[in-house]
Design brief:
By secondary structure, the protein is α/β, with parallel strands linked by helices. It contains nine helices and 16 strands. Helix 1 crosses helix 9. Bound molecules: zinc ion (ZN).
Length: 397
């Protein structure tokens, strides 16, 4: 009897939520479109107007909202708190910045039109990740949950700048127990319980200049670079054998090269930039040691500089957040959501580092992100909205 009453109560909650989403949905798409119309390219880091828009809308909704001018005074971030009855909180995280649009002539329409055509919302940021920002904003507006929601809208994600990491320190003042986290990057509503990391190195190779008519009197730094590239190719074949339950194998690729300054001079310098992607279980420091050993064996005159690093992340598929998101997402779409590895680095690295049980999940196809004619299905925005509303209702009881 009690189970029947409970089921009935759940159905009631769900139908009320569906009704609330249905009522709000045109406004959610409108907000996503407005966000696309306000460019927030990074580089150069022009999130300001978009952040101010988010701040003023959340204020309009009556939410406790803050404009955070750290770490960059000219690039504000936004935080809002929806307070519940107990101290447990979920942090919803999204980034305001987008990559630049590229050549606008390559687009079939204005990259900042925010237009809906044939069931798709178009524009730079539609997938990555302004539709998700709109969902976060509006679900927080009508959510009615026992715990607390912390909304964090970060700058600088596209260039691995300290946006979300600064916000994680900022929110300490609310004295909430941030148990769960959700980073709303596009996963096509699948649950990314892990993500790959990346580490980037600049390798400076030294040779000796001479007249190009007497190359043996010099040491050609570009020829040295070709030996390093061969070694990296062998290394890539080796690491491709590493297995992970969800992630594709690690990779290592030369992505930039520069050397030489005149056609008749043997080059004395050559620089390579290497992109090494990590699977969960690997660390940036260990990989740096591997690469140093690899080049040491070639007995060259070189320097290595680590120019960036994002650690891989993995949480248990049986964690409360993974199970709850999987269930809510499957229920909202009517088909089973998958458990996947997010192939790129995200700000979830910072949440997990703070021991928040957190994963990546959101609407949109990652293949459309950063692409010409970036677009997202309106149906998927709706499914994402329903799923997030269900999750918030059920997770923080
Ligand atoms: Zn993103």
């Amino acid at each position: 009897m009690s189970i029947i009453i409970l089921l009935h109560a759940n159905d009631l909650v769900k139908s009320e939520l569906l009704e609330a989403v249905e009522k709000k949905f045109p406004e959610i798409v409108q907000t996503a479109s407005e966000l696309i119309k306000i460019p927030s390219r990074n580089p150069p880091g022009e999130e300001k107007h978009c952040a101010e828009y988010i701040y003023s809308r959340l204020k309009e909704f009556g939410l406790e909202t803050y404009l955070v001018t750290e770490p960059f005074s000219s690039r504000p971030q936004v935080v809002a708190v929806v307070r519940g009855k107990n101290e447990n909180a979920i942090m919803l995280n999204g980034h305001i910045d987008t990559v630049p649009e590229g050549d606008p002539e390559s687009w079939s329409m204005d990259p900042f039109s925010g237009k809906v055509k044939d069931g798709l919302l178009y524009g730079r940021g539609s997938v990555d990740m302004k539709s998700a920002l709109a969902i976060m904003m509006h679900v927080a507006e009508f959510a009615d949950i026992n715990g607390n929601i912390l909304l964090t809208f970060a700058v600088g994600e596209e260039r691995a700048e300290p946006g979300t990491s600064t916000l994680l320190s900022y929110v300490k003042k609310f004295d909430l127990n941030v148990k769960y986290g959700l980073v709303l990057e596009p996963t096509a509503l699948n649950v990314a319980s892990c993500q790959k990391g990346g580490v980037w190195f600049k390798i400076k190779l030294k040779g000796r200049a001479s007249h190009a008519s007497a190359p043996d009197q010099g040491v050609n730094a570009i020829e040295i670079a070709s030996k390093v590239m061969q070694a990296i190719n062998d290394y890539r074949i080796l690491i491709a054998k590493k297995k992970h339950r969800l992630a594709d194998p690690p990779t290592c690729t030369v992505t930039m090269i520069s050397g030489g300054f005149k056609e008749n001079v043997i080059p004395d310098k050559c620089e390579l930039v290497i992109d090494r992607r990590l699977v969960p279980g690997e660390s940036g420091n260990a990989v740096e040691q591997e690469l140093r050993l690899l080049i040491d064996r070639l007995q060259l005159d070189y320097e290595v500089e680590k120019i960036g690093s994002r650690e891989p992340v993995e949480i248990d598929d049986n964690s409360a957040i993974a199970k709850a998101v999987l269930e809510a997402s499957s229920e909202a779409t009517g088909k089973n959501a998958g458990i996947v590895c997010f192939p790129g680095a995200t700000d979830n690295e910072h949440l997990v580092a703070k021991r928040i049980e957190s994963l990546v999940w959101g609407p949109g196809n990652l293949n459309k992100a950063h692409a010409i004619d970036e677009c997202i299905s309106i149906d998927e925005i709706k499914h994402g909205t329903v799923a997030l509303a269900l999750l918030l209702k059920r997770l923080l009881v």
